Amino acid sequence: MIKPLLIEIGVEELPAIPFLKELPTIEKQWLDILEKKCFGVCV
Amino acid sequence: MACAFEFYYTPRRLVLWHESFPTEQGEKEEEFFGAPLSVALKDGAPTPAALGFAKKCGVEFSEIATAMKDGKEVLYYKRTIAPQSSKPLLKEMIEQFIKGLNFGKSMRWGFLEESFIRPIRWFGCMLGDEHVPFSLFGVESTPFSYPHRTISYEPFAYMFAGDYFERLAQRGVVLYPSKREEIILNAFKAIEAKEGVSIEIDAALLAEVVAITEYPTALIGSFEERFLRLPPEVIITSMKENQRYFPVFKEGKLTNRFIVVSNAISDDYDLIVRGNEKVLRARLSDALFFLDNDLKKGLCYEGLKDITYLDGLGSLMDKTEREKAIALYLSEQYQERLIAEHSRLNEQSLNALMEKSVLYAKSDLLSEMVYEFTELQGLMGYYYAKEAGEDELFALALKEQYLPNSEESALPSTLFSAIVALAYKLDSLIALFSINKIPTGNKDPYALRRAVNGIVKIVLEQGIAFDISKDLKALAQGYKAFDFALLESFFLERMYQFFDVNPSIISAVISSGERDIVRLSLKIQALATMVQDDGFKEMFSTFKRVANIIKNMDMNQTLSINPALFENAYETALFDAFTAVNAKNYESFEAHLDALFALKPHIDAFFDNVMVNAENPELRANRQNLIASIYTAFKSIADIKEITL
Question: With an 8 Å Cβ cutoff, are A16 and B11 in contact?
Fold first, then answer.
């Protein structure tokens, strides 16, 4: 069975420059966790 | 597919959204490998190691199987883990996600041990219409979120995952970064059309502004025209770096207007504009004060002796003196062209101007403006030199001495400036090698790899002769003795990053002994073009054979060929063809390589009809020398035996 999933992490004013530096790896980070937990492998 | 998800961000929230997420994880298999059978069993009975392995797997020894691993039969156990419900797994996944993010610096808050880039204030996690409760970083997850700050500080509830987006949008938050960027760019267009101006869009600044707003509104403000007396770069730097404002131009000239992207939701945006104008006015007043003070003092370099460059390398004045020696060495090398390009200069005045340029090159580091805006180093020297009525070449050299300063950066526009820029980079490189500050692995704190790239770019752009071995060695004489081979190989290693070609081509050209940067580049390009040709692989096999035949020969001996010893027409034909190729002068390395590769039919015929390793030693040496001569001719461009296709 599938359902929509929403996760919101509320933070206090993210500083733009360090955040933008890390931005390209953020999605990969979540993908790796999904794979490790057997929620499907993204091709 | 579970992995299909979206990631959104604003300055106050990171959001992961799966339109379809499984309520149960997939089946999972775990494999365990234990000791080899020789260790696991003794007289057919399990040893303590084997029993320990079974215990680790949580089963009786009788359930343990064997498998082959690294050529040995070892204990093996595989178990299938029944799928678990997703809900309880989400806490661990979110925790791993947050802890896996590395923003460089992080902070701690409250009494927590954990840290993150900024304090975490709330969590929301909704699977379908079910709230997923957990506690992380001292915060309980709730089915609540927070609106835009201007709207309210009170949380609002949402009923199910998809409901969040609509409710958030109603409360003043544009969640999608792409949408915020679109809003900003559309507003820019509207301002440009209305005001008849153009807004300079710096992509990095735009990304920053998108990242710091939840509800962006672009506004136009202005500052007093008297500030336009400041160099445009000062105004732009002050606006961008300090305030994240976008500069506004009219007919290519900077105007006294600016664009600020506000995050506020307001009934009175004029108030916001006035506030920003006030802040900018203070900034520009400071800059004008620095400018006037600096102009009063004028450029002077004496203070450089009080600034330490690096431990072991003296002061900035010492660096300047070393750069001066390099610049004068290079200036002498390229003197003819320098004087031809600047006919008002003679040998004496050229040297005097070069010396002066290097002496004053770092003098703007002592100015108040560069102290405040370090990124304006060089540029302020240029403006101050111009104000003082100095020679344009001198002023330009001050401005361009740090170029190239990024991957896409412009290069020095004149050979004169190029020499000053080379002197700066060459000194940094040689001086740091001389005190053993050599980059290792991916650590390069003094950006010496970038310095080498800069040197190569400048030399190629200017098309000047610069020999990595000869010139670098001559310059290194002025420094504390060090292992020069390390510096030369560091320089040559950069060639593999610099040229986007088959690395074996670069090895082949380096092995030819070529060390002049321009000639290295031309040879690499000529060979790379040839290698890309469809028929090259087949043609190349012949020349690989040439290289293989002579691989055990002493190539330092004289390769004398006696045509009187030729026994058949194939030897003569190859010799004649090769002699003709060798007799010519070639306008390019491509043409020379073409002529050498055109020997292929003669070489093939020679190999088919002539026994190179003849019994008669005189005949054998004569034939080997003919083949070795062809190989040597190639080696004047590249060592063909290094090439792999």
Answer: yes
